[in-house]
Amino acid sequence: MEKPTKVEILVVASQEDERRALAEVLEPPFHVEALAPSALAAHGPLVDKAAAIASLDGAEPRAVESLLPIRELFAGRSLILLARNAEEELLEEAIARLDPFQMLTQPVSAPALRLAVLRSLPAEGPGSGAREGHRRARALLGVSAAIREVLEQVRQVAPLQVSVLILGETGTGKELVARAIHEKSPRAQAPFVAVNCSAMPDSLLESELFGYQRGAFTGADRSKRGLFQQASGGTLFLDEVGDTSPALQAKLLRAIEEQEIRPIGAEQTVPVDVRVVSATHCDLRQAMERETFRRDLFYRLNTIEIYVPPLRRRRVDIPFLAQHFTEELGEIHARRITLGEDFVDRLLQHDFPGNVRELRNAVERAIALARPGETVTAEQLVGFATDPGHRPLEADPAPRETDAYGADESLRSRVQKVELEAIAQALERYNGNRTRVAEALGLSRVGLRQKMRRLGIDTPRRY
To answer: What pLDDT tens digit does each residue of the chain (463 aa) get?
Structure first.
């Protein structure tokens, strides 16, 4: 069960004696940096730590809030909570807001704590390519019928060992779909490795994908495993695969068909076990007509095709996502704000060429410009535009017929209406099975239960 030496662990506890005691339990084999919760937000190098252990004491005021910076620093990585004096309601809040890898109740024995840390670490240790593969997927969010259809397609194809091609405009969340497929597949415990094929020239991309032997080219002073090998047993996500050259496409085709690769400079092939999920914003059928994309590779990648619609075609998601980003980013920046009705109205009138990424940017900009506790108005969107090919939002735009909400409805009532409709439809579709409903809506079971309680939805539990 030994892990590589110098595995660094962060310990967070309000009491110095508790921090010291936890460090003594973990050192050796781990190297521990112990901090008080108040030191988290201002501390920089913590992103290099492999895992974090945080003490949650229900007797302390704002117990969960004090640990919120750890959610940003360790988003998707291994966080272990040690709870004491905590009622069930506080534990549910901690699970929903901190998203821990594991929660233990104090007192906990030293062997049990060490075992929990060992099991939380990526298979190849901190700093390796495997850490990315073990990151917990951020959920694809939305309440529209279009997003529910995407989530249903993910649920259907995830258990199958087939290639999936994800289509959609930039910023729609194609990588989130790929991660969801991986997380729900039999390969979920193995790495998820993503590469943006448009971000590097062919020669560099080839060496990244297939690796190289020492001495294969100038500067290759050591051998390097490629991404196909790093993803072995798991999923390799080829983002913007439509931007690859025909020469590289031929090598990709062979690697996918034969499940083997030849690193640059090597004489022998290397077997790999990889599920390939790819994505593109390009029209690959037109690319095939122009002979810039190989037909044989297209048919190999396109066993299953999933289309992620742009945000302008699912405007019902805009208030829901805006509220979600307000809560998420408000916690990250430690700034609580309220979205005004005119702010949301203006969002609903925008086409969002940058899709969900642009919407998140708009909300984050508003949070940055607002004072804590302030209600954000449409004035803070004047001049906002992320795509130079589209004009900014104007101060007084003309009304849009696509606005599906009445002018006299508040943001809260709008969000509650779409949430209520989405949950009710999902409960009916899955016959009251809350686990399936939470999965379909991209929520945790705790998050679903909290929303149902807030909305006054009461149904028998069927697991």
So the answer is: 444 445 677 788 777 778 778 887 777 667 777 676 665 544 444 555 667 788 888 777 777 877 777 765 665 557 788 888 877 777 777 777 777 777 777 777 777 777 777 766 654 433 333 333 334 445 677 778 888 889 889 989 999 999 999 999 999 999 999 999 998 899 988 999 999 998 888 878 888 899 888 877 777 777 888 899 999 899 999 999 999 999 999 999 999 999 998 888 888 889 999 999 999 999 999 999 999 999 999 999 999 999 999 999 998 888 888 888 888 787 777 777 888 888 888 888 888 999 999 998 888 888 888 887 778 887 777 555 444 444 444 433 333 333 444 444 555 566 677 777 778 877 877 777 887 777 777 676 777 777 787 777 776 554 4
Residue 244's domain comprises 145-307
For residue 270, give the nearest of 238, 239, 231, 301 by alpha carbon: 231
CATH number of the domain enclosing 316: 1.10.8.60
Judge residue 371's burial from the number of C-beta atoms within 10 Å of its C-beta, 0-12 exposed, 13-18 middle, 19 or more buried. Answer: exposed
Domain's final residue, options 65, 97, 128:
128
For residues 424 and 316, membership in a common domain is answered with yes
Last residue of a domain, one of 307, 337, 359: 307
Do 443 and 325 share a structural domain? yes
Contact 210, 226 (CB under 8 A): yes
Task: Say if pTM beats, i.e. exceeds, 0.70.
Answer: no
Compute the distance between CA of residue 422 and CA of residue 441 in angstroms, rounded to an integer.
Answer: 8
